[in-house]
Amino acid sequence: MLGTVAATGRTIRVDNVNQDTRFDASADQKSGFVTKSLLATPIQRRGNLLGVLEVVNKRDGGHFNESDERLLEIVANQAAIAVKNSRLVDRLVKSERLSAIGNIAASIMNDFKSPLTDIRGFA
C-alpha cells in the first residue's frame, strides 16, 4: 500500500485489506497484529515526497471515511512542515559551526601575524 501511495501521491482508503491485492500481510504475520482496514496518505512538501503516513484499524472498529481522510491529510501536511523545518534547523546549525570554525581560524591567523611581524622587524 505504501508503495502505491508513494508512487501515485494520492490517499488510499481500504475497508478490507484481505480483499486488496496490494496489501502485504507479512508484517501482520511477524507481529501477530491483525490489520483489517487502513488509510494512507503521502507526506509531501512542494511536490517532493518525504514519506507516507498510514493508520490502521479505526478505533471503533468501523471503516475510515472522508472525514478521516481529510484529517490524515492535514496531519501529513503538518508533518511535512515539521520535517522541512527540522532540515532547515540542521542546515543552520551546520552553517553556524562552519562560521565558528572560520572565526577561530581567523583568530589563530591574527594571533600568528603579530609575532611574525615582530620577527620580521627584528630580522
Give a description of the structure:
There is one protein chain. The chain has 123 residues and is of the alpha+beta class. The protein has one domain (2-122): GAF domain (Beta-Lactamase, 2-Layer Sandwich), CATH 3.30.450. The protein is built from 3 helices and 3 strands, in the order H-E-H-E-E-H. A 3-stranded antiparallel sheet has the order 1-2-3, with helices on both faces. A hairpin with a 2-residue loop joins strand 2 (38-45) and strand 3 (48-56). The protein is rod-shaped and about 90 Å long. The relative contact order is 0.11.
Number of strands: 3
Q: Which stretches are poorly predicted, pLDDT < 50 over at least 5 residues?
A: none
Total number of domains: 1
Strand content: 15-25%
